[in-house]
Structure formats: structure tokens, C-alpha cells
């Protein structure tokens, strides 16, 4: 019927087939409206209900209280690198950044336009292959927030426990692991995520913001740079990316059908174990980039004995319908991105391919 490949691209990334099919089935006639969801006014009751339901489902799935607002923005996670400090950092104040990857570094660089940036830790010299221990974090005396990247997409590392910063709000870029595992949202003042890895297609950025933080935001900003605008107008100040939000809604419904975040976390652990086990049992043929206790459940990064073998691996995998495995240029080697929507069968196919490739080339 279909010729779907197993798609390991880091983002935009694979989406659940039932989600794509549902979108296809109602593409020209959304919920008996006689119109595509793309053609409906964002001011209509029908659209606003859809958007509100998307926010409600996200809050239910993440078990977050009513003191948080879910906002729908554009500009990707990259705009949030600037928008966070624009709203909360001033020249006389300091924000702390935990630099565990190049997206984290970009976020810190953007903040320098607005105030003092204190790097509480930086693992760049080790090519970001690990998540630091709590004892390594050297916080400044009175930061307005502490920023971290929960999953380092390029390097394949992930914070498994978040640092304890007391009353200082954590701000997290969760672009590549939101909804992949349960976590306690309370220490977080703000969470942002571009949708195109774990939530849906590109075009919408989810921001989850705690009300007490909103009260502290700089009011003297252009209207589209203020979180307050999106809160006050229910993310409908201007035209939101309606189709992308609709797709996120479908993904969230699918996730609920899978049993929610706990269930998907368990499956993500099983999926990642399939691939990490092959790496660990390969006698050094496959070498993981990330240190073992920092390993990500979302992005598995590894090298082979030579770049020639790595190229051969990518070519042979592509022929088998295993797509998008080439690593990021700053790490080299291979990267398998196995977000929520990647099936157990896809990970099994990759693990089997890796064993076979080792047998033939080891
Ligand atoms: C992909 C990614 C980004 C960049 O997102 P854009 O939406 O393209 O701006 C930022 N942070 C992390 C952790 C990512 O994985």
C-alpha cells in the first residue's frame, strides 16, 4: 500500500502514520466544515476550539497546573534563544547558562545582547559528550533564571535529572525531548520547543510559561516579542500557524492513545536499548559519542572505525530503507534520531542492520 521508509532524520522528523492518515482524510473537509483546516479563519469558533483543545491536551499530558500558560509562537526555538532574555534579562542582571551543546551555546550568545551571561558550565572542550555532574555547576550569586537544553540533539546527550536551583526559575529548551518522558514541571519558569522533532511539523513553537514569571517581563518591547501579548490574546494576536497547530493536536491525540507520557517513555527506553546494546556489544566497532550515563533516548550518536566505513554504512542503510542516519558535521559518524513517533520496529530494523553490517565489515 505505502512505501514508507524508516526515517531517522533529526528534524523535521518522522510523524506517526495514523496522524498523517487522519490529516489526509480530512484535508479538504475538516470536521464537516466543508473547508480545509488551512482555509478556516483563525477568528472562527471552530479554529479557536481546536487551538484551545491542543493547549489543554498538552497540559494534561505534561500534568501541568493552571498557573502555566501554553502559547503558540513562530520563529522556532531559535527565536526563543533571544525572546527569553529580551523579556527577562536586563543589562544590570545576570542569567546563568549551562552550555552542553551548540544549541545551548547559541542561546547563551543571544542573551549577551540583553544582559550579563554567566556560563555555569561548559563541556565544549570535550565536544559536548557528557552532561555535567551537579558539583560542576558554578552558579552566579543571583541569576534571574538558569537556562539549559534538556536534550542535546546533535551530541546525543540528555539531562536525566535536572539541577536543583532552588527558587531560581529553570528555563529549558526541550525541542528534542518534550513529551518523551515524565518530569516535574514545578522548577521550570519557562519551557520552549520547536514542534518539528517531537510534536508535529515545523512552523509552530510551543512555549509554556509560569504566571509569576510573566509578571516580571519587560513591558517595553515590540508587541510580537512580548510573551504577554500571546497570553492576553490567547496566541491569536496575529495569524498563528493554524495547520501546524492542527497537526500538533493530532500528534497529542495519538500520544494519548499510546497511553500518554509514561507509556511512551517506557517504549522510548526499550527502543534506545535495542541500538545502544548493539553498540556496547560490538567489541569497539561501534563507538558511542556520548558517555554512557549521559546517553539520550532521542538521538543515538556513534562512530565506526573509519569515515569510509561510515559512508558505506549510510549508503547500505539507505538501500534498506533506513534513512537520515548521517551524523551532524560537528560530531561526524552516525546519528539515529528516534523520537516518540519512531516505532519499535524501526529501531529493531536498525539494530538488526547494524549487527549485519558488523558481521560483514568487522
Ligand atoms: C532543532 C533544535 C533547535 C533549533 O530549532 P529551530 O526550530 O530550527 O529554531 C534548538 N534547540 C534544540 C535542542 C534543537 O534540537
UniProtKB/TrEMBL annotation:
Entry's cofactor comment: Binds 1 pyridoxal phosphate per subunit.
Where in the cell does this protein reside? Cytoplasm
Looking up PROSITE patterns in the UniProt record yields:
AA_TRANSFER_CLASS_5
Q: What is the superkingdom listed in this entry's lineage? A: Bacteria
Q: Which GO terms describe its cellular component?
A: cytoplasm
Which residues get modified to N6-(pyridoxal phosphate)lysine?
197
Q: Which organism is it from?
A: Capillibacterium thermochitinicola
Q: What is this protein called?
A: Phosphoserine aminotransferase
- List GO molecular-function terms, semicolon-separated: O-phospho-L-serine:2-oxoglutarate aminotransferase activity; pyridoxal phosphate binding
Q: What are the binding positions for pyridoxal 5'-phosphate in this chain?
A: 77-78, 103, 153, 173, 196, 238-239
Family statement:
Belongs to the class-V pyridoxal-phosphate-dependent aminotransferase family. SerC subfamily.
- Main localization is cytoplasm
Q: Which UniProt keywords apply?
A: Amino-acid biosynthesis, Aminotransferase, Cytoplasm, Pyridoxal phosphate, Serine biosynthesis, Transferase
Pfam families annotated for this entry?
Aminotran_5
Q: Which cofactor does it need?
A: pyridoxal 5'-phosphate
Can you tell me which residues bind L-glutamate? 43
Q: Name one GO biological process term.
A: L-serine biosynthetic process
What function does this protein fulfil? Catalyzes the reversible conversion of 3-phosphohydroxypyruvate to phosphoserine and of 3-hydroxy-2-oxo-4-phosphonooxybutanoate to phosphohydroxythreonine.
Q: What is its EC number?
A: 2.6.1.52
Pathway assigned to this chain's UniProt record:
Amino-acid biosynthesis; L-serine biosynthesis; L-serine from 3-phospho-D-glycerate: step 2/3
User: What sort of enzyme, by top EC class, is this?
Assistant: transferase
Catalytic activity from the UniProt record: O-phospho-L-serine + 2-oxoglutarate = 3-phosphooxypyruvate + L-glutamate; 4-(phosphooxy)-L-threonine + 2-oxoglutarate = (R)-3-hydroxy-2-oxo-4-phosphooxybutanoate + L-glutamate
Q: Which residues form a coiled coil?
A: none
Q: Which residues form the Aminotransferase class V domain?
A: 5-350
Summarize subunit and interaction data from the UniProt record for this chain. Homodimer.
Amino acid at each position: 500500500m505505502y512505501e514508507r521508509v524508516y526515517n531517522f532524520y533529526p528534524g523535521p522528523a518522522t510523524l506517526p502514520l495514523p496522524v498523517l492518515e487522519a490529516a489526509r482524510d480530512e484535508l479538504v473537509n475538516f470536521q464537516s466544515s466543508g473547508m480545509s483546516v488551512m482555509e478556516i479563519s483563525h477568528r472562527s469558533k471552530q479554529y479557536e476550539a481546536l487551538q484551545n483543545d491542543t493547549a489543554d491536551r498538552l497540559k494534561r499530558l505534561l500534568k501541568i497546573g493552571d498557573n502555566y500558560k501554553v502559547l503558540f509562537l513562530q520563529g522556532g526555538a531559535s527565536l526563543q534563544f533571544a525572546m527569553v532574555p529580551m523579556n527577562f534579562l536586563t543589562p544590570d542582571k545576570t542569567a546563568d547558562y549551562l552550555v552542553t551543546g551548540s544549541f545551548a551555546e547559541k542561546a547563551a550568545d543571544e542573551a549577551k545582547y540583553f544582559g550579563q551571561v554567566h556560563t555555569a558550565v561548559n563541556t565544549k572542550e570535550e565536544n559536548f559528550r557528557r552532561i555535567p555532574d551537579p558539583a560542576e555547576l558554578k552558579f552566579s550569586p543571583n541569576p534571574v533564571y538558569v537556562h539549559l537544553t534538556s536534550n542535546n540533539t546533535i551530541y546525543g546527550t540528555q539531562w536525566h535529572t535536572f539541577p536543583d536551583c532552588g527558587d531560581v526559575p529553570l528555563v529549558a529548551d526541550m525541542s528534542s525531548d518534550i513529551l518523551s518522558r515524565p518530569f516535574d514541571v514545578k522548577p521550570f519558569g519557562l519551557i520552549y520547543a520547536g514542534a518539528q522533532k517531537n510534536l508535529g511539523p515545523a512552523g509552530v513553537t510551543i512555549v509554556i510559561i509560569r504566571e509569576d514569571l510573566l509578571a516580571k517581563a519587560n513591558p517595553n518591547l515590540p508587541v510580537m516579542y512580548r510573551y504577554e501579548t500571546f497570553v492576553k490574546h490567547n496566541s491569536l494576536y496575529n495569524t498563528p500557524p493554524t495547520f501546524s497547530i492542527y497537526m500538533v493536536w493530532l500528534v497529542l491525540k495519538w500520544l494519548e492513545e499510546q497511553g500518554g507520557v509514561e507509556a511512551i517513555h517506557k517504549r522510548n527506553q526499550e527502543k534506545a536499548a535495542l541500538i545502544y546494546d548493539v553498540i556496547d556489544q560490538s567489541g569497539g566497532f561501534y563507538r558511542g559519542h556520548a558517555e554512557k550515563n549521559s546517553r539520550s533516548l532521542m538521538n543515538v550518536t556513534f562512530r565506526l572505525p573509519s569515515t569510509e566505513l561510515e559512508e558505506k554504512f549510510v549508503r547500505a542503510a539507505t538501500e534498506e530503507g533506513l534513512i537520515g542516519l548521517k551524523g551532524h558535521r560537528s560530531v561526524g559518524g552516525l546519528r539515529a534520531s528516534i523520537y516518540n513517533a519512531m516505532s519499535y520496529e524501526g529501531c529493531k530494523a536498525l539494530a538488526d542492520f547494524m549487527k549485519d553490517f558488523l558481521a560483514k565489515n568487522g
